[in-house]
User: Fold these one by one.
Assistant:
Number 1:
Amino acid sequence: MRMEPLNLDRKGLVKLLALPDFSPIYRKADQVRAAHKGDTVQIRAIVEFSNYCRRQCRYCGLNCKNTTAERYRMTPEEILACANMAAEAGYRTLVMQSGEDPYFTPQLLGELIREIKKTGMAVTLSCGEMPYAAYAYLKSCGADRYLLKHETADPEIYARLHPCGTLENRVRCLCDLKSLGYETGSGFMIGLPGQTLETIADDLLLLEKIGCDMAGIGPFIPHPQTPLKGCPAGSIELTKRAVALARLLLPDINLPATTALGVAGGESENDIFSCGANVIMRKVTPDPYKQKYEIYPAHFEKTDIPAERAFLERRIRALGRIPL
Ligand code: SAM
């Protein structure tokens, strides 16, 4: 049965998000994914190299007001050893993520990028907001992509949850990254207090406006040492709906099954591949750091880079998709 063309403006998106039966939209998103991205699932390694953060994002366990967090910084040697192991295990991309940690200056990050690029892997950075000149310098050192979620497109919710920043500056960063030629990733959380279906529609439309190449959409998960500790977690169903609509709105972008979805939704991390997603990240952060990168409470198995990659490849093949 052919579907009527979908209305993907703000009103149309709100209506779709609220549908009693979303299954035809999931099917459509899966078809669009297959037509535009093929059947591969890109597996990307992520190393969380520092959990120091100067910011106070009210939902995040890394915020500097959380005095119970055990802080760590990986040494450059540890980061490079981890990168080499990821490359040997078959990863083609290393995502370098951290809190906003001024210890890792653009110069230090640049040296690390140059070394990591020697492995042949692409480098994605996810280290927060920086001035244009820093992003430009890191690009000149070989960084390929940058992930910086806009978190919420509602300026009031943004201001309430981010005492240290503005939505305007977040979007300025994303536009700078795009103009510098980075493959630019944004994204947002589902279930932040005050969020409505209209906010989610605005989030989706902001991805389009920025011209994102990638979007990470994941559920909010409350962390007990943050001001949002008593708030309910974001809905898994709504997260999947937002991913499917992102695929319809932006057919060519990369859409990861976010780690938060895997943590909160268990098996939903698998279903998300039939809702439009085509990317997954795997933590290669060594122990004991992995468990200390606690943006939300989660239990992660001990790090075994080759074994975890092989396991994930089998899971992806079992879904009829091709791991890359
Ligand atoms: N400092 C970098 C930045 O600001 O983009 C990267 C690190 S930050 C911890 C990575 C992402 O974690 C954020 O973009 C946010 O969406 C997500 N995050 C933080 N706390 C979360 C929570 N409680 N539930 C779900 N996602 C969360």
Note: Strands lie at 40-50, 93-98, 122-126, 145-147, 183-190, 214-219, 256-257, 279-283, 322-323.
Number 2:
Amino acid sequence: MPLRFLTAGESHGPSLTAILDGMPAGLSLNADIVNKELTRRQQGYGSGGRMKIEKDAVQIIGGVMAGETTGAPIAMLVENADHVKWKGKAVEPMTSPRPGHADLTGAVKYGYRDLRPALERASARETTMRVAVGAVCKHFLNQFGIIIGGYVTSIGEIQADFSDMPYEERFQSAEESDVRCPDQTSAQKMRDEIEKAIHGKNTLGGILEIVALNLPVGLGSFAQWDKRLEAKLALAVMSVQAIKGVEFGDAFENAKRLGTQAHDAINLQSSTFDLRRSTNRAGGTEGGISNGQPVVIRAAMKPIATTLTPQQTVDLALGENAPTKYERSDFCPVPRAVPILEALAAFVLADALLEKLGGDSMNEIKPRFESLRKATLDDLQMDNLPHVFWE
Ligand code: EPS
């Protein structure tokens, strides 16, 4: 893995930090490139009051000199504006774990005397730094024409249909929608559904789709289980708070189809000798390797666990059944999860591209990208002879 990153920081602590290691030298980078993605993460109908308090802005404190990466670890910091309300104050005990949150598992695992340390680190506030890391990775991928975008396909029971819309149009229309749904009629229904949940003192989940365009053939490998591209992407997507399911392409629909209807026929484009597909049921990978088609990832987000309507739990300090207590939270973070999942996908794909190409600087890497093998008859050159594979 040429690229790696770590994040640190609590939701209401002084700041959040990330270190991204392995980015090559010579990539132009500034705070605006990162802040654009941080702002996207803060927008979306169904957010709670915290997003009105925070104005996430990154400080790049390592790895960039004179506006370019140096090849050294890139260190980034975002301050928590909400921290001033917590600093130096005794905080009410929190002893009633929310079902579905990290409160109980965290407290049992780490032996906390109050539930707060669990929720402080488990909080989706941490995704700020993953989006910062992803912004750098996206910017790196853009240098090779690789684009990553996303949108919401359903919220609660409301399912949008925009299957005829090209991907780049979906990305653009989603950005114009506060629920990040490319179809405006469905977007209005989603907004109504979220409003109903807010009035009903409840929360809503949904499904979102992340798509990577213009990827070369050959990222990832079947040679080892942990090199498979969709396995790495699944890990990254499943690592995001409240994501409980993932599929690639038509995975779950394909499970109902016959073999002859589940795959993507290969056709020869006779003028260019290109090998083409007219469908993408596989979602852009075959044998754990990118096949040049869009990589299509679908993720299911559960309704978040902090509900205004109390849920049954146990007060661990009193040792008796009790209702959950409500503190400020999102009602439907699904629209805000789009840039978060894009960021994680960008990290995995940037890592896979660097693994494929090697190199320490953009000047070294760019010509290597141009010389990548393509899915054409010219590049493949089968010798059409019998071989003895084992003596
Ligand atoms: C979160 C609870 C809320 C969300 C938070 C995730 O925070 P607070 O308790 O401060 O209102 O706003 O998300 C963010 C702060 C963010 O930046 O996305 C949780 O419990 O996971």
Note: DSSP finds 13 helices and 17 strands in the chain.
